[in-house]
Amino acid sequence: MPEHPDYPALTRGQIAVLDRINAGEAGLPVLQQIVRLAQETLGGRGAGFAEYAPDHGRIVAATGACTPALGRRVDRADTRLRDGRTLLIPLDSLNDEFAKQVQGGDVQRMLGARCEVGDTIVGSLHVYFGEGDDEPGPEHHAVLELLAGYVGRLYAARDGLPAHSGEQVRRQENRDLWVAVTSHELRTPVTVIKGYADTLSNHWDTLGDVGRHEAVRIINTRAGELARLVDRLLSAASEDGDVGAAPAGPFDLTEALRGAVEELPADLRRRIVLDNLPGELPKAYGERDSIATILTELATNAEKHSPPGSIVELCAGADAETLRFRLADRGAGIRPEHVERAFERYWQAEGGDRRHHPGAGLGLYLVRRLVERQHGWVSLRPREGGGTTAEVRLPRA
């Protein structure tokens, strides 16, 4: 870390941020640029911004060593920042899963600053430093406080921020929408299952082996859809995230993903390309049975926003602390300001094939709930070259 902040970089970055704000840009893209500027100016190994909800924070912008944590739920740090606007914290002093993981690598310390709008702390801006870096001095603290002030101004403007909009304003409207759409979704698979079950019961002898097998296959597929829908409804109805919790333990992620692909509807299964799915990975720790639901929801979301017949790539990998898998589509791509809102209950982006994929906006909400109760996290981001990449990270066993 340099003895002094990189003031020329700070000046250039401030001008670039102001130019974007003056041009009408706001929200997560500008916030991401401020986070990148914090890392560059202070010479850190990484930087991140955690937006605060009443009981937790979530990393909604990140660079460098913090990038894999994008979308991660973390503890609020504002209790440590009450006595001053900035604070240098050794990561091994934090009782936080993310801190424990990054502390095992090159990152040892975090310089944090609270971001305020009036008397409200909306989040905290952090820059991470390694064991061999010098201790940040007063100038570093002052620069981070300055950049945290820019973040506060973004939130004060309320243009695209907070990244998670409050649900209370639309609660009744959302409840009515939920009842209307989910009742339709429940009726469809139930009607199909009952219809084919009646056919088997009344025409067993005349159907022949081929007809019976096809009827059983359709019942099985629709029953799977119905089970996943019930999961969504139960998850949406409960705020604690523990509905239907399955036993957790070590499992083979590659095997679970291959099995989950086989359970997809045939048309969707044919679009999945197992681009880089290693034969051997370290064991993941979590709920193996949840992988099918998670993959189905992510793949269905990719299909909904992609041209018919386009491919969806599935890959997986591991690092020192986590296992990950990614689904990358070739669709229109997600707008940067929507990468967090997409996980909100009932929220749906404009566009997409709603005729073949109606819904109440619960799929990605369910995915985040399932992943987070396994101490993992999930994120969306625009794919380079067009489309969207969804990434899920789970702890290693």
From TrEMBL:
Subcellular location: Cell membrane
Record CDD domains: HisKA (cd00082)
Pfam hit, one: HATPase_c
Range of residues in the leader sequence: none
SUPFAM superfamilies (alphabetical): ATPase domain of HSP90 chaperone/DNA topoisomerase II/histidine kinase, GAF domain-like, Homodimeric domain of signal transducing histidine kinase
Gene Ontology terms for molecular function: kinase activity
Domain Histidine kinase: 181-397
Catalysed conversion reaction: ATP + protein L-histidine = ADP + protein N-phospho-L-histidine
EC class: transferase
Assigned EC number: 2.7.13.3
The keyword Kinase appears for this protein: yes
This protein's name: histidine kinase
Species name: Paractinoplanes lichenicola
Lineage of origin: Bacteria, Bacillati, Actinomycetota, Actinomycetes, Micromonosporales
